[in-house]
Amino acid sequence: MRAAQLLHCRADLTITPLRGNLDTRLRKLDTADIQAIIVAAAGLKRMRLGDKITQYFSADIMLPAIGQGALGLEMRRDDEKTRDILAFLDHYPTRAAVEAERSFLVELGGGCELPVAALAQFDDESIHLDALVANLDGSRIFRDAIEGPADKAGELGTTLASTLLDAGAQQILDEIYGSL
Fold it and tell me: Are residues 86 and 174 in the same domain?
């Protein structure tokens, strides 16, 4: 997804996929024939490597992966005791934002292989959701935004996905699913 968004802005770039953990990727910057790497700033900061960050991309240029930066807890649905113990960890603004982003992805019928991105932001009981669908080379991007009440976060994601599908994103998804 990052590659498609970068190529949309700069079709002259050569993108080389990097594998491995953060340390391995940073090492490749010094040892491989590459000029830059793109990684999440949060990961660098968490590893106390924030001094390695030379530039941040604004959301106007690059939206994050769906659910990027959010932490989730998983527990048995019927375990009320554990749910009660952990209730203080529930951060409603984050939960609403992730719900909007994930419902967007679900409506597209996708998972991690799709070139989609979204950023939902909570503000005073409302959600602003900005999302996109791109083809792999970044030559076509369908992007739009929606805003509404946070308690309707899931509906906002579904509505925005439908809007993008109707605008032409369905053709991109058909091409991608046809090549899988």
Answer: yes
The CATH number of whichever domain residue 92 belongs to comes to: 3.30.160.40
Concatenated DSSP letters of 43-90? HHHHTT-GGG------TTT-PPPTTTT-------TT-HHHHHHHGGG-
Q: Shortest CA distance to 120 belongs to which of 92, 99, 105, 138? A: 99
From first to last of its 180 residues, what are the pLDDT tens digits of the chain?
889 999 999 999 999 888 888 889 999 988 888 999 998 888 899 899 999 999 999 999 999 999 988 888 899 999 999 999 999 999 999 999 999 999 999 999 877 678 899 999 999 999 999 999 999 899 999 999 999 999 999 999 999 999 999 999 999 999 888 865
Alpha-carbon span 124 to 81, nearest angstrom: 31
- 12 found inside a domain: yes
**How far is 38 from 15, CA to CA, in rounded Å?**
10
Domain assignment of residue 11, given as a range = 2-52
